[in-house]
């Protein structure tokens, strides 16, 4: 068995791991490179897509699924395997990505033409039709814990990773010289307490684990503490009567925040206000969530059994059209506005920030990670003025940052994952920043007492 990683190594984006067992070629994830690594999307896969028999997709985040249409364009003719929610969410995520790329291309091309260098602009990686074609290759939909044989020597089981709706890690049982070896590919791992979906189900055994390392060097604040902070921020915000702006990722975080607001409403804690979910992608995702209530945790299931919608209550408005979205700008007080993008570098949130950041009685509550270089990060870091659509906007609103809502396991969660595997011999570290992985490697050696190795791009890893 040979494993080669072509993405999701030496960084957190572009997840893509090739597993060879005899003649069988299996790809785990085919994600998009993002941020500073974006150019890598144009540099080829590092292998011939036509040799792949199966692509196992762990979850629908774009850094894990975002290059699937490109893979198909370049000759992939195998079968894609995923859970049912992952299939449905991937569809809307890829269509959204195609849309964003098309718009971005138009904008960049206009600028480049004015400069006289249109050839400098990369065309979109794929369009909507490529997405529809790619979705045809999702041939095998698996439930959690449902075994599936890829060949006489390779069997897989998808287990609940507790990261986002439908997310899975892959348990792979491989016959090597008549002895069976169990190898795990973690995808992205979640936490053992979740607001909406079921928490992670830890593995019971594995000899080798390829494990993500996103937060391998630190621990999150407890979720309960973050929920308290969130409630206080909402109540504080409304004391002065202004609007509350919450930049939210469309998938998972938007639903979690709606659910928290619903709980506050039920408990009589939510001041009289209007709540807007102003993101077509988040609205589609929320509607999809409601079709998969069997994946929700017990508390949310009970709410549904009592006939309640966990994400909707009176005074919640889903605004799809641009018209409806613009109308929100006229509201000066007592509105909670959820919009994307989560890091404020695009999407409708920029309009809402432009209309509210300068108001002293408004607030912005950050509930997700803000990467360096984004508008969100500038605000979190205390900028007094920011530029939005070329206009200078004073930052007078109150700013709250709540850090404990991560969808990723922290260091103790990742170590817990490894420790729960009986017979574990070796951990391969993937999906992390190099500095963080070094710390995580030390923690593993100290706490789990096994060897570990930081995977380098396209190096051959032999497992026998
Ligand atoms: Zn993820
Ligand atoms: Zn990821």
What does this protein structure show overall?
The structure is a single chain. The protein is of the alpha/beta class. It has two domains: 2-218 and 407-462, Ribonuclease Z/Hydroxyacylglutathione hydrolase-like (Metallo-beta-lactamase, Chain A, 4-Layer Sandwich); 223-401, Rossmann fold, CATH 3.40.50.10890. Helix content is 31%, strand content 22%. The protein has helices at 62-65, 68-73, 84-115, 128-135, 223-239, 253-266, 280-290, 298-305, 322-328, 349-356, 375-380, 411-419, 434-447; strands at 2-7, 16-21, 24-28, 54-56, 79-82, 138-141, 148-149, 154-160, 168-176, 179-185, 208-212, 244-247, 274-277, 316-318, 335-339, 363-366, 385-388, 391-394, 398-401, 426-430, 451-454, 461-462. Strand 2 (16-21) and strand 3 form a beta hairpin. One zinc ion binds at residues 12, 15, 61, 63-64, 188, 431.
User: What proportion of the residues form beta strands (DSSP E)?
Assistant: 15-25%
Could you give me the name of the CATH homologous superfamily of the largest domain?
A: Ribonuclease Z/Hydroxyacylglutathione hydrolase-like
Q: Which ligands accompany this protein?
A: zinc ion
Cα-to-Cα separation, first versus last residue: 6 Å
Low-confidence region ranges: none
- Quaternary state reads single chain
Number of strands: 22
Structural class estimated from helices and strands? alpha/beta
CATH fold category name of the largest domain: Metallo-beta-lactamase, Chain A
Q: Main beta sheet: strand number and arrangement?
A: 7 strands, mixed
**Secondary structure: helix percent:** 25-40%
Q: How many structural units, i.e. domains? A: 2
Radius of gyration: 22 Å
Q: In CATH, what is the class of the largest domain?
A: Alpha Beta
Overall body shape: globular
Average pLDDT for all residues: 96
How do the strands line up in the largest sheet? 6-5-4-3-2-1-22
CATH architecture of the largest domain: 4-Layer Sandwich
Number of helices: 13
């Amino acid at each position: 068995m040979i494993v080669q990683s072509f993405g999701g190594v030496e960084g957190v984006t572009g997840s893509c791991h090739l597993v060879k067992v005899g003649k069988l070629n299996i790809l785990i994830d085919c994600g998009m490179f993002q941020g500073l690594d974006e150019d890598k999307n144009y540099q080829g896969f590092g292998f011939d897509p036509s040799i792949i028999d199966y692509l196992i997709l762990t979850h629908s985040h774009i850094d894990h699924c975002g290059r699937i249409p490109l893979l198909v364009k370049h000759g992939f003719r195998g079968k894609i395997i995923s859970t049912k929610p992952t299939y449905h969410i991937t569809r809307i995520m890829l269509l959204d990505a195609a849309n964003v790329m098309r718009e971005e291309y138009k904008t960049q091309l206009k600028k480049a033409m004015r400069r006289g260098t249109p050839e400098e602009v990369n065309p979109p990686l794929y369009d909507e039709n490529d997405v529809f074609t790619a979705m045809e290759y999702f041939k095998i939909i698996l439930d959690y814990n449902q075994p599936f044989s890829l060949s006489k020597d390779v069997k897989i089981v998808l287990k609940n990773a507790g990261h986002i709706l439908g997310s899975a890690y892959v348990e792979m049982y491989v016959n090597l010289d008549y002895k069976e070896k169990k190898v795990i590919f973690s995808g992205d791992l979640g936490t053992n307490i979740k607001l909406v979906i079921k928490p992670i189900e830890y593995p019971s055994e594995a000899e080798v684990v390829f494990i993500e390392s996103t937060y391998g060097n630190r621990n999150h604040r407890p979720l309960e503490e973050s929920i308290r902070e969130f409630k206080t921020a909402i109540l504080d915000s409304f004391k002065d009567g202004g609007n509350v702006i919450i930049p939210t990722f469309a998938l998972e975080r938007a639903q979690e925040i709606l659910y928290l607001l619903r709980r506050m409403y039920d408990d009589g804690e939510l001041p009289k206000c209007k709540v807007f979910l102003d993101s077509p992608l988040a609205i589609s995702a929320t509607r999809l969530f409601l079709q998969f209530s069997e994946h929700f945790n017990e508390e949310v299931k009970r709410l549904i059994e009592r006939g309640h919608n966990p994400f909707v209550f009176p005074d919640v408005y889903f605004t799809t059209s641009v018209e409806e979205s613009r109308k929100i700008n006229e509201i000066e007080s007592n509105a909670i506005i959820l919009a994307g993008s989560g890091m404020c570098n695009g999407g409708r949130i920029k309009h809402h920030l432009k209309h509210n950041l300068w108001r002293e009685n408004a607030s912005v509550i950050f509930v997700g990670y803000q990467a360096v270089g984004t508008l969100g990060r500038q605000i979190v870091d205390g900028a007094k003025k920011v530029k939005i659509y070329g206009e200078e906007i004073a930052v007078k609103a109150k700013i709250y940052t709540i850090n404990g809502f991560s969808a990723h396991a922290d260091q103790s969660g990742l170590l817990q994952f490894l420790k729960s595997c009986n017979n574990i011999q070796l951990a391969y570290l993937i999906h992390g920043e190099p500095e963080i992985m070094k710390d995580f490697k030390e923690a593993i050696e100290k706490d789990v007492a096994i060897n570990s190795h930081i995977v380098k791009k396209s190096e051959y890893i032999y497992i026998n």
